[in-house]
Structures
1.
Amino acid sequence: MTLKTLAARCLGLLAVVLLMAVSAPQLSAQQINPTQSSVQEQQLLEALQGGQNLSGRVTIPDQRAADLIKPGNPGWANLHGGTITTLFVVSVVGVLAALLLFYLIRGRIRVDSGLSGRMIPRFGGLERFAHWMLAASFIILALTGLNLVIGRAVIRPIIGEGAFGTMTAWGKLAHNYLAWPFMIALAIVFLVWVVHNIPNKVDLEWIKQGGGILKKGVHPPAKKFNFGQKMIFWAVVIGGAALSFTGVMLLFPHLAGTPADWQLYQVIHGVVAAILSAIIIAHIYIGSVGMEGAFDAMGKGEVDLNWAKEHHSLWVDEMMAKDTKPQTRAGTVGTPAE
Ligand code: HEM
């Protein structure tokens, strides 16, 4: 090595040492703040196992984004994946079994006096529009919701992972968007029917006679809606409102408050959905195959006069007093019920 080369190397080394001396304190000051507290690994582990909530730091405006997401919260996970699934299965299978038993014992509820062929208007256009909008949206919401609860265990093994993934993705979209027509229909149904659903003393007689559905030839008096229907109405209104509120909280988690509040809304959503689905299965049975002449009320908007006299005698009296003349099947429909 020549003297010239040695001198050049020494100068280079000196330059590097000088550069490090100048820049090192700045780098360490930027990266490490010895007075700042930091989360220990043990704290993270405890939080992830269901312990205290932890928050870090974020630079975006929503400070809740700094909260540690705890996927394994055991209490909520057990409720969500276990208790609610069981409740869904038990209530849906239970009501189907009860209806089958009822059908085997009682058979189809017939019009005891036979169909008269004379029709009386029962529901107007707005009532039927709101009912069917509510019914269609609820049924799809219930099926797509049920898929989220039991689909992975029940449907995926049958149709395969790919088809199940596609179906569930579309189902989730349908669930999110159909919530809105459901809420609109619920509000209309509430407004048009609430006056007919206030319990009164006529209902006591209906309860005393078991609604007349257990025995042939028993027909307790009722106005536009009997006590059983009033119970369905209030279950739909209160249950539907609870589903709507909790559903909006689930869709927009930032409105829900803390993560614990969001989890509570999810549990309420699941429990109410399971109970209301079971009630609605019974309603669909009675409104279609379970009772002769009932479907016409929502299908055509008019019912056979003998059906009306047997199930809603006081309402028929009111209609007659209002001079709403029953029509023959061939004739035009008279003044709407309301
Ligand atoms: C295919 C399904 C459905 C059928 C065949 C059906 C049938 C009927 C019928 C025939 C009535 C009138 C009964 C009468 O004249 O007294 C009625 C009323 C009613 N429906 Fe439905 N319905 C269905 C689905 C739904 C759903 C999904 C809901 C709510 C989520 C619902 C809520 C109501 C309510 C609140 C009433 C008034 C109270 C009552 O009659 O119980 N329906 N339905």
2.
Amino acid sequence: MSLSDVLTIVGGFTSVFYLLKLSWRCCSGFRQFVLSEFWRVDVRTFGQWAVVTGATSGIGKAYASELAARGLDVVLVSRSEDKLQMVAREIEQQYGRKTRTIQVDYNNGRSIYPVIAKELQGLEIGILVNNVGMLYSDHFAYFLEIPDSEQRITQVINCNMLSVPQMTRLVLPGMIERGRGLIINMSSEVGVRPQPLLSLYCATKIFVIYFSQCLHAEYKSKGITVQCVAPFMVSTNMTNNRTANCFVRSSSGFVREALNTVGLSSFTSGSLSHALQNIALTILLPDWFRMSTFFIRKLRNKAEADKYYKRVWKETLVEKED
Ligand SMILES: NC(=O)c1ccc[n+]([C@@H]2O[C@H](COP(=O)([O-])OP(=O)(O)OC[C@H]3O[C@@H](n4cnc5c(N)ncnc54)[C@H](OP(=O)(O)O)[C@@H]3O)[C@@H](O)[C@H]2O)c1
């Protein structure tokens, strides 16, 4: 056999391998994001109650509402008592489900968990959504530009990271006892790959990914599903309520799609649009370029320009109102 025959065979096998891989990804994407609209897990089978952290706005509020719409009673956990009462009333009136509220500040670290444990006592918790999370700057910022950094670093770690295993510790034993349970952990696309100018935030999000994947592997044989959701941009307070479009999803649309993927994927972008953006980004923005000083400067300049235009826009609006 000549060298060119060997190369032809190797080339053929490689092409078939990649074609099969691509077909498999397309089929599972179709099942995950298209068929799941008609053929999805009944979330009521996990148990009577769902607990949602950071439940008074954005993605958390959307999870709480969608879970209530699908027949669960909901425990809402957040910082502001007024907002908690408002969302609880909305859910009770709209979906006729029971609600409970727990007012805590996740920035405060471990002192809050005995309070949460007491409030959750006696409830059959089937689903936990570890959604709470915060950014530390409203634009792309260098690490040393984090405002009040001494305090803020601890707060971000307490809120984005510590909350996830601590909340899990509280509900997992009951789930294992009943042989079923679902834990949804909210990561982010910027946790999938490193994102300069969001250093601390993206590091907290990869913590969520690894923790979720290992937890799923450890407890799936006990009937526990752990799903990690890593979205791109969703229109919420965190993203200055950008207008929703085919790239930026509305929180309710995003959560509806993401919940449909439960049982089909333990790690998901949450929506078809975000899954496609993930593929596009892998091809168009390789890590070496994203980590380069050139790209970081460009990103930073764009962020500065956006901030400037936003300020001018706001000032113009105020002048017009006057
Ligand atoms: N939006 C996006 O594009 C996007 C993309 C990827 C990942 N994510 C992740 O998705 C999750 C939700 O984000 P979001 O955009 O929905 O955020 P959001 O609109 O800012 O909502 C955050 C929620 O968490 C609560 N919260 C914030 N800090 C808290 C604290 N220290 N203690 C207790 N509750 C607190 C807020 O309520 P109160 O202010 O009333 O306490 C609010 O209910 C986060 O983990 C975020 O990292 C978001």
